């Protein structure tokens, strides 16, 4: 079990399994100057609008690009896949990071990551091997 260092991810991981490895690579996007701001405070901000329409090239002021976040998360997924080849490992992260990994699996531009949902506490199942990666399930949720 690997989880982002954020408290909510750690709590989710601990509810699944007691031995949790904290993985900084699974942390949410570094939102730099936007950290802690509410969405309504960013409404109309040109850089925010660009971030939401051009994720493949936009840069968060004082933070990281979606490509940088994707690169670190995918590298971690690949490393875990090599280390635990043939075994199932749960990784607990955040919606944009999960979307970025799914985009990598499917060969989608990062501009398309808002085209699908990743809800809180949902399960997205991918299989990764030396042959590549495959999406098995996306945004699976427990019945209401």
Description:
By secondary structure, this protein is α/β, with parallel strands linked by helices. It has a single domain (2-140), classed as 3-Layer(aba) Sandwich (Rossmann fold), CATH 3.40.50.1240. The protein is built from five helices and five strands, in the order E-H-E-H-H-H-E-H-E-E. The chain has helices at 7-16, 39-42, 46-53, 66-83, 95-106; strands at residues 2-3, 21-22, 91-92, 123-129, 132-140. The protein has a three-stranded parallel sheet, with helices on one face. Strands 4-5 form a two-stranded antiparallel ribbon. Helix 4 (66-83) crosses helix 5 (95-106). The longest helix is centred in the middle third of the chain and has 18 residues, at 66-83. The radius of gyration is 15 Å and the shape is globular. The two termini are 26 Å apart.
Short description:
With 144 residues, this protein is of the alpha/beta class. Helices cover 36% and strands 15% of the residues. The chain has helices at residues 7-16, 39-42, 46-53, 66-83, 95-106, and strands spanning 2-3, 21-22, 91-92, 123-129, 132-140.
